[in-house]
Amino acid sequence: MTPPNTARRRETSRRAILTATFDLLQEVEYAKISIEGIASRAGVGKQTIYRWWPSKGAVVFDAFLMLSEGAEGGPVRLPDSGDLAADLTMVLRATVEELTDPRYEQPMRALATEIAHDSELAAAYAERLDGPLREAKRERLRSAQRAGQLADDLDLDVAVDLIWGPLFQRWLHRGGPLTTDWTDRLVATALDGLRPRR
Amino acid sequence: MTPPNTARRRETSRRAILTATFDLLQEVEYAKISIEGIASRAGVGKQTIYRWWPSKGAVVFDAFLMLSEGAEGGPVRLPDSGDLAADLTMVLRATVEELTDPRYEQPMRALATEIAHDSELAAAYAERLDGPLREAKRERLRSAQRAGQLADDLDLDVAVDLIWGPLFQRWLHRGGPLTTDWTDRLVATALDGLRPRR
Amino acid sequence: MTPPNTARRRETSRRAILTATFDLLQEVEYAKISIEGIASRAGVGKQTIYRWWPSKGAVVFDAFLMLSEGAEGGPVRLPDSGDLAADLTMVLRATVEELTDPRYEQPMRALATEIAHDSELAAAYAERLDGPLREAKRERLRSAQRAGQLADDLDLDVAVDLIWGPLFQRWLHRGGPLTTDWTDRLVATALDGLRPRR
Amino acid sequence: MTPPNTARRRETSRRAILTATFDLLQEVEYAKISIEGIASRAGVGKQTIYRWWPSKGAVVFDAFLMLSEGAEGGPVRLPDSGDLAADLTMVLRATVEELTDPRYEQPMRALATEIAHDSELAAAYAERLDGPLREAKRERLRSAQRAGQLADDLDLDVAVDLIWGPLFQRWLHRGGPLTTDWTDRLVATALDGLRPRR
DNA sequence: ATATAATCGAGACGGTACGTCAGGTCTTGCT
DNA sequence: AGCAAGACCTGACGTACCGTCTCGATTATAT
């Protein structure tokens, strides 16, 4: 994602570009964001963007990366109180909070749709951004599995998809309101399954 | 979605535009499709598009609508052999087939991302395109519920999300390969839930 | 200038079009006047204009024709007090008045430049609009010639051009201010010639 | 007539645009010339035209300017054989030749009518294009005046208008054929005046 | 008085050009 | 060498009009 020799690269320009990008994402519709706009907002020549990023999506992606690296101190962990249902409920509620936060909603939709169209970006996303988070989710489930709260033969990847897939889908496609009621039922249903339990 | 008086509208132009749109969606990346391109491909003046549709997304949407209306004869129904697991497995495999069909993949990604950015479009999608299909899904589950195969207190809407949400999410975000193996495990896990039975 | 059978033609529409045209000429730059604009201002279908006039210039021309026919009662005559210099001075001052009248300046510039580009229109202009006026000018000079105030062998057509040519030229090309001082000197110089007398 | 900083301007583009403009003026009716047409003929982006010229008329004007600057070597001078009538006759015949030359007629009509509608352009024309020529005309007359061939109190500006005004007027408004016979009579009448001598 | 046919208003249509915005490349000095 | 600045060619935007073409709904004779 950064072709030439990084040595002489000016760090201040890089940060200015990524910050300007993220700021713009919050302010205007994604489709209306332009390289020119980013450059002028960042006080940077267009060439400086084209030199270091192959596409607008890549800039957006790096803007998120910068943000997440800034936030992070050490590996991500999901809460583990021993009560899986309670922990999941809490995490999903927090996720909903973030997804509907006006500061992040538009930028995240932008990232999501860029990924949908660009498989290289999708791979980078899977590795750099989603990877650690997904591992944390898997880890929390593994812990529950060890505690006998989940089926032994459960495919943890499928399980992660089963819980978070519906949430992201509903959010991205506006399938309905993201209420706590809904997330709570989602967790319960995923844990118990559709079939009647005795 | 169609502002002026529809009376004098020329049906041949309308069809030409929608057909051209869908054809283009298969050939070139969505972002590179232009109103100008659609108009010239359809042999139509640009104004004729701007007169009847408010945005590129709306045209794309109507192109899908035309397609689905053409295909449909009566209400959509999911197979009902009495064996829910088998039926769902089959339907999901077919869905995967469609989602990865080169003719439809790009157009459907385009539609999905347009919906993600335009809530009006999302509403129209929910009502006109996804609505009947979702009702069919719910109906199949209701039938199973009546047969005692699903929990009595199951929220069918959540159930639908639980099965199809992960699928669409994995497809759209390229979360991994869409193999029959994965869909089969998805169905099984959704039906049984994450918790151990017995 | 009016092709089909004039019998069934609606006179009210014709007048509305010509009036609207002349009004528009006063209000907006000639280049910005459109058939659509005239039609909508006149409350008339575009086809009604296209049916009866071959070009925008022709409509403008007819608008002038209508005006001049309205004004006229009998043939045009220039004043003839017996004092040619005085009469010409007066007439030229009046002409300047008209050429710089804000109600007429723009429309007349429009007509003048249409004529410059369309020789058919120029012929119609020469015959219907300029013709009678030019004949009146010639007649006034002929009268002076009979009175021995002009050279016997004078070509009256050249004489008319010599007096009014410079005026129109200065007006149309904005060669300088059209003051009474200038017109008076023009008349005097034209009458006496450039060469020294005696 | 040239807004931004001229420093970075590409001279090749400028010349291509002006040349293309002049060429087009010879080929097609002025009203049918478009910025788009000029740009494509010149192999230039439209923006490059809009960047440096405010209007189509300004481009046309500069095209003429380029031509006249190319032709010129030093200040313009009218022939001075000592015989004013002969010299003027010759010059007017040459002017007629030029005005009716198929290469220049349409372009010059275009320039003339642009000037008629745009007073800024008219001012630029008066200063840059017509100015030197008019001074040459005045100078020739001044020389004749010194030689006692013209009245001492003659206003040379009026005199210039008296000779060339009728010519341009007849040409632009197609007032009649531009024969040598007519121009010769024009010169004679202007010199002698309308009043009888002796 | 009624049929009948041209004219009318309205405005959709396939086009062309408008003047603007942005994309991505290239060039020019400055640091 | 990287950079800010910005000119350049390209292509698309959304709008305004072009001149043609239906549509009913008036008229104004010609039956």
From TrEMBL, chains A, B, C, D:
Assigned keywords, A-Z: DNA-binding, Transcription, Transcription regulation
KW Glycoprotein (keyword) present: no
Stored InterPro entries: Homeodomain-like_sf, HTH-type_TetR-like_transc_reg, HTH_TetR, Tet_transcr_reg_TetR-rel_C_sf, TetR_C
DNA-binding region of this protein: 34-53
Pfam families in UniProt: TetR_C_11, TetR_N
GO molecular function: DNA-binding transcription factor activity; transcription cis-regulatory region binding
Domain HTH tetR-type, chain residue ranges per copy: 11-71
Protein name: Transcriptional regulator, TetR family
Protein's organism: Micromonospora humi
